[in-house]
Design a protein that fits this description.
Elements (H helix, E strand, L loop, with lengths): L9 E2 L8 H9 L10 E8 L3 E9 L11 H4 L2 E3 L2 E5 L5 E4 L1 H14 L7 H14 L11 E10 L11 E11 L10 E5 L17 H16 L4 E5 L7 E4 L3 E6 L3 E4 L10 H12 L3 E4 L4 H10 L2 E8 L3 E10 L2 E4 L7 H14 L10 E3 L2
Parallel strand pairs: 1-3, 9-10, 9-16, 13-14
Antiparallel strand pairs: 2-3, 2-8, 4-7, 5-6, 5-7, 6-18, 7-8, 10-11, 12-13, 12-15, 15-16, 16-17
Helix pairs in contact: 3-4
The chain binds pyridoxal-5'-phosphate.
Pyridoxal-5'-phosphate binds next to helix 6.
C-alpha cells in the first residue's frame, strides 16, 4: 500500500469512554494540551510493506522497546491544527491539506516515509467523527489535533529507520488567552540560535523544539513570555519565535515578514496572514528584517506593530522586546489596530462567521 492513497481504517471503539458528565466537567475549562479524547489513530509503516494496520482505537500508552530508534536519534515529526464546531452544529478544519503537504515535506527532510496526504486528512476525519462530542461548543474553544510520526524500529545503528508509527491524538482546548488578547514580551537570545542554513528549521520536528527550550527557559528567566531567534550565521536577522512566525507593521501600511529561506517554519497561519493583509490593501513584503532595524524603527515610530502567529494562539501581539543590553516597547505595549483586525478576520473565517472565498475551510461533519 506504500504508493496507494487509500487505507481502510479499522474502528475499535473505546469500551470504557469517559462519561458524559466527566467529559462536560473537563470541557468546562480544558486549558491547552492537558485533556485528551477517548480515541487515537495509529498507522504502521515498514519498508517493503508500506503503510498498514490503520486503526482508530482507545487512547492509551504505546508499548515501546528501549532501543526504539526515535528515543536515540529523534526521527520524529508532527503537525498541529484545529477542528471547530460551527453554528449549525457541523465541524470544520482550517486548510488540513496544507498540514498534510507540510507533514510530507517534514518527513522528506527527516529521511522518513511520506504518508499520502489523503490518508493524513482521512485520519483526522476518522478521529473527529468518533470523538466529536469532545469538541468544545464555546466561542473560543476547539479540538486541537496532533498528528505525529516517529521511528519505531528497534535498532541502534545510525541510519533512517525502516519502521515507523503514525498517530493522531486530540485535545480539547479553550481560549488561548483567558480574559482577552494580551501582548507578550519577547526575549532576543544572545546565546542560542534555532536553525542554521541546511538544517531542519523548515521541518516541523520535535528536535527543533528540544533545541529551543534552553533559550525559552532563558526568556522566562529574563521575565519574558517567548524567545525570538536571530539567524544563526550573522546573528542580525530576525527568524521567528520558538513556535510562531513573526510580522512587522509599518506606518506606511506595509506588512513585512521574514522570507522562507529554509531556516523558518512555513506557517499556515503566516501564509493566511500574508494573503489577508494583501486583500485588505496592505503592501505585503517577505524580506529580511534586522534586529538593529527593529530597534531603530520602533524608536522612530515608523514601526507601529509587531505580532506573532501560529495555530495555537492564532495572532499574538508583541508589546515589548528585551535583550541583554536593554528593552523597548512597540505601540506603547498595546495591541495594534492592524494586528487585531487581521486576527478578527482570520478567526471569523476559521469559525465560519465570514465568507471563505479561498476555500480554506474544510467541512468534516
Ligand atoms: C508550527 C510552527 C509555526 C506555526 O505554523 P502554523 O501552521 O501557523 O501553526 C511557526 N513556527 C514554528 C517553529 C512551528 O513549529
Amino acid at each position: 500500500m506504500s504508493g496507494g492513497d487509500k487505507l481502510d481504517f479499522e474502528i475499535r471503539p473505546n469500551p470504557a469512554p469517559v462519561s458524559a458528565a466527566d467529559r462536560a466537567a473537563l470541557l468546562a475549562n480544558p486549558g491547552f494540551g492537558r485533556v485528551f479524547t477517548d480515541h487515537m489513530v495509529t498507522v504502521r509503516y515498514a519498508d517493503g510493506k508500506g503503510w498498514y494496520d490503520a486503526r482508530v482505537e482507545a487512547r492509551g500508552p504505546i508499548p515501546m522497546d528501549p532501543a526504539s530508534a526515535v528515543l536515540h536519534y529523534a526521527q520524529e515529526i508532527f503537525e498541529g491544527l484545529k477542528a471547530y464546531r460551527t453554528a449549525d452544529g457541523g465541524v470544520t478544519m482550517f486548510r488540513p491539506d496544507a498540514n498534510a503537504a507540510r507533514f510530507a515535506a517534514s518527513a522528506q527532510r527527516m529521511a522518513m516515509p511520506t504518508l499520502p496526504p489523503d490518508v493524513f486528512v482521512d485520519s483526522l476525519h476518522k478521529l473527529i467523527e468518533i470523538d466529536r462530542e469532545w469538541i468544545p461548543t464555546g466561542e473560543d474553544g476547539s479540538l486541537y489535533l496532533r498528528p505525529f510520526m516517529f521511528a519505531s524500529e528497534v535498532f541502534l545503528g545510525v541510519r533512517p529507520a525502516n519502521e515507523y508509527l503514525y498517530m493522531v491524538i486530540a485535545s480539547p482546548v479553550g481560549a488561548y488567552f483567558t480574559g482577552g488578547v494580551k501582548p507578550v514580551t519577547v526575549w532576543v537570545s544572545p546565546d542560542y540560535t534555532r536553525a542554521a542554513p541546511g538544517g531542519t528549521g523548515a521541518a516541523k520536528c520535535g528536535g527543533n523544539y528540544a533545541a529551543s527550550l534552553a533559550a525559552q527557559a532563558e526568556a522566562i528567566e529574563a521575565g519574558c513570555d517567548q524567545v525570538v531567534f536571530l539567524d544563526a550565521v550573522e546573528r542580525r536577522f530576525v527568524d521567528e519565535l520558538g513556535g510562531m512566525n513573526v510580522f512587522f507593521v509599518y506606518d506606511d501600511d506595509t506588512v513585512v515578514t521574514p522570507p522562507l529561506t529554509g531556516t523558518i517554519l512555513p506557517g499556515i497561519t503566516r501564509d493566511a496572514v500574508l494573503t489577508l493583509a494583501g486583500a485588505a490593501g496592505h503592501r505585503v513584503e517577505e524580506r529580511p528584517v534586522t534586529f538593529a532595524d527593529w530597534q531603530a524603527d520602533a524608536a522612530s515610530g515608523r514601526l507601529r506593530e509587531v505580532f506573532a502567529c501560529g495555530t495555537a494562539a492564532v495572532i499574538t501581539p508583541i508589546g515589548g522586546v528585551r535583550f541583554p543590553d536593554g528593552e523597548f516597547l512597540i505601540g506603547g505595549g498595546e495591541p495594534g489596530r492592524v494586528t487585531m483586525a487581521l486576527r478578527q478576520q482570520l478567526v471569523d473565517i476559521q469559525r465560519g462567521k465570514a465568507t471563505d472565498p479561498r476555500g480554506w475551510v474544510h467541512r468534516v461533519l
